[in-house]
Each structure stands twice: as C-alpha cells, then as structure tokens.
Design brief:
36% of the residues lie in helices and 17% in strands. By secondary structure, the protein is an alpha+beta fold.
C-alpha cells in the first residue's frame, strides 16, 4: 500500500504499543470483552506492522461502526452446529470476524493435535481482516495453517462484466521466525482498498487491475466497476474454489448475496463464511522431517539466482521486513485513518498519532526540542 500524503497534509505514524492500547480500549468501550478486544487489537496492529494496511488499523473505525449498528455482536454465543471429530461447523452468532476466526483456529488446532487434522468451517460471521492472522497463529503453534473466507462481490468472472466474487483470499503458513512461509493472497489482482486509495490520491491503476462498466480494462480509478481476477480464468477458478470452501461448505451465503463492509443492515450480521484448516506435521512426514523440508524449500528459493539486484523472496519475507521497520519507526497512516485514530484517542484520553519522524516516549508523548506535548 502506498502512503503518499496529499499536498499540505503532514505524514503521520502511530507506535504499535499505543495503537494496541487505543484499539483495545475503543473496542472495550463498544462492549467487546477485554480478552477479545485485545486479540482483535493485536491482529489489526500486527497486520499493519506487516505492511498490509488495507486490512490493518484502517479497519478499526469500520469495526466500531458495525458494533454500534449491531451488525457485529460484541458478546457472541458460539454454537457448534456439527461436530465429526476432525471436522466441525461453528455458528459465530454475528461475532466480529476476527473473534470468530481465532475461535475457529483454536478449535482446529486442538483437533489437529488429537487427530492429525482439524477443519473448522464458520458461518454467520463478519469481515475477519487478514487471513494470515489465523494461519500464522497456527504456524506459531507448530502446525500448518490454511485459511479462506468468503467476501462480498468485487471481482467479475473472466470475460464478464458484473462482480460475482469477493477478493476471496487464500492463506497458508508454516514454520516460525525466519523459517516461516506465510502466504496471504487475494484471488483478484488487487484488493478494492487499493482502488479506493488510488481514487483518493488521484493516481492511475496498475495494468489489468480493474474493468469498467462495459467490462473493458481501465486505468482510471473512478471508472473501476469490478476488479479483475488474478491470472484471468485461473484466478476465477481460485475464487470459485474459495467460495466453495468458505461459503458453500459452511452453509453460508455466496459472495454475490453478501453486503459490503460498511453496507450491512443494522441489527443483522453480514453472514460471512470462513474455513480454517490445521494440519499437524507429526501425523504426516513427522515434525522434524517437515521442519527440514520447509527450511530446504525456503532456503532454495531465497538463494535462487537473481535476475536483478533484488533478492528472490519467499511468501512472508516482505512482510517481515515491513514489521522490522515499522516496529522501530511506527506504523505509517493515510490521512483518513490518522484522523479517525486521533479522534478515538481524544475520546478515550489516550495518545494518538504523531508526525512522521517525531521521537516517541514510552508514555506516548511526542518530544519536541523545547517541550513535551501529547500526540
């Protein structure tokens, strides 16, 4: 995500710890229990730290709005609809999607440790942010994680005009630290958040990102009517596979029957479906053999001959680089997100954002040459 700032607007950042406290406090004030609020806050901040800004802190105001309008239920009562050992279906009672996704991931992990595999489908949920939140959780537990989710229509089928599919991400993660593979990709060329960002900044779209109302490729953000599937018909196939797994398997509505984030009916959840899969390597090649194979896979890719001066990267490498930089320097924010977070900070009496480059104290104060002010 690009962080070009409109002329006249000062670039802003927020430190990770301040952002976690602010997000958790705001969610708690909206009625979310402390443990759930902390998990959602951490998921949003970690996603922003890893450079996935469209699915990080930018979503906090939207999630708060969905809580205020009762699209999202702050205190859901999860219900197991079907349980067949390795596989289960969970009704999320219109929970925040991240609460539902992490509940499913924990259940999948427990099943995988007992049975070698755990597969938990979720229905009656809401937007769950970045799919890698759940796969990386499972990877940190020593498992191989897979996650998909349904999403409201943004993507036209290959050769079509009207949006039918969501951006329908696929995430796979395994390993830890530098030996972690962490794939998290949409089945569209880009997510719709990138289109909106380009509109706000007045910048053209990349080639093949979107089509206009006649189904023709366009580079004009204001003319974008539908996103294009990744790799043409192959991306359409992947999107349909995700719909099958994330919606049909869970008994959830298909993408074209869902409302967009921010467009839900007050008092009714958005009926999003997810699928979380946990596999225990010990039940297959064995934990040690799996770790060795993963290290060989990653090492071979990263040491592949370079076509340019840029290194060959594995999934997750760019995100780790972002996390290192942003942990030290703070999370960069677009103007709208910075304004929204500052308003939340003022409401709750907490530190907010700071000018890019300004030092940050542990207590959240911005230091200038002569005085200390609260951001």
């Amino acid at each position: 995500m690009n962080h070009d700032t409109p002329a006249g607007a000062a670039p802003r950042r927020i430190d990770a710890d301040a952002a976690r406290t602010l997000a958790a406090t705001a969610l708690g004030a909206a009625g979310v229990p402390d443990a759930d609020a902390a998990e959602v806050a951490n998921g949003l901040v970690e996603t922003s730290l890893r450079g996935v800004d469209t699915h990080g802190l930018r979503l906090l105001p939207q999630y708060l709005d969905e809580l205020a309008t009762q699209v999202a239920n702050p205190t859901p009562k999860f219900r197991t609809v079907n349980d067949h050992g390795a596989g289960a279906l969970l009704d999320a009672d219109a929970a925040l999607g991240m609460v539902a996704g992490l509940t499913a991931a924990r259940s999948a992990a427990e099943r995988a440790r007992r049975l070698g595999a755990g597969i938990v489908a979720v229905r009656n949920s809401n937007h769950f942010g970045a799919a890698s939140v759940y796969t990386r959780y499972l990877a940190d537990e020593g498992l191989l994680g897979i996650a998909v989710t349904s999403a409201a229509s943004r993507v036209a089928p290959f050769g079509g005009v009207e949006p039918l599919f969501g951006t329908n991400p696929i995430s796979v993660a395994a390993g830890q630290d530098g030996t972690q593979l962490a794939l998290d990709m949409a089945t569209s060329q880009v997510c719709f958040g990138e289109i909106k960002q380009r509109r706000a900044e007045g910048r053209p779209l990349g080639p093949g990102w979107a089509t206009d109302a006649a189904g023709r490729t366009t580079g004009e953000p204001d003319a974008a009517h539908a996103l294009s599937p990744l790799g043409g018909y192959k991306g359409q196939g992947l999107a349909m596979a995700v719909t099958l797994l994330g919606a049909v398997l869970a008994g959830a509505p298909t993408d074209w029957r869902l409302t967009q984030v921010g467009g839900g009916t007050p008092g009714a959840g958005r009926q999003i479906g997810h699928l979380i899969v946990a596999l225990d390597p010990a039940a297959f090649a064995g934990a040690d053999a799996f770790a060795d194979g993963l290290a060989d896979l990653l090492g071979t890719v990263r040491s592949a001959p370079r076509a340019t001066e840029a290194p060959v990267l594995a999934p997750g490498d760019p995100q780790r680089a972002h996390a290192r930089e942003r942990t030290a320097a703070g999370v960069p924010l677009d103007a709208a997100t910075a304004t929204a977070l500052d308003a939340l900070a003022a409401r709750h009496g907490l530190p907010g954002c700071r000018p890019d480059g300004a030092p940050w104290d542990a207590d959240g104060a911005v230091r200038t040459d002569r005085k200390v002010t609260t951001a």
